Fold this sequence. Notes:
By secondary structure, the chain is an alpha+beta fold. The chain is 33% helix and 27% strand.
Amino acid sequence: MTEVARFQTPNRMYSHNVRITVDENPLNAILDYVFDKNGILPVAVWIKTKKSESTLDRELRSSSKAVSLLLQYGCPLKDISDTFTRDSIIGSVIWYINKNIEDILSGNQPDKTPNLSTQPTGYTIK
């Protein structure tokens, strides 16, 4: 088995906040990134709710840690987006970030907060 090195995260990183609603839950996703020789490298995603310490908040923090570790071990955001299904909140948020990464990094926020659903019939952005 080969060893894979984890990306050493710096003490300070660039970040962008993304406000999003999934299943009527207002969320704040924070995308941390650094610049490297190949361009911009996402290294962490943190997802929070306004209801701090709720069951949903704890689940999203745990899932965010998993996504961040995958990024730091070199897994592309697209692969993570394909793996976490959109019938979960973390999957919907990662899908949205992956689909809109260029707009997010350039600071272009939509006029209205994106409203996503984890139901298969609601996979479109409202």
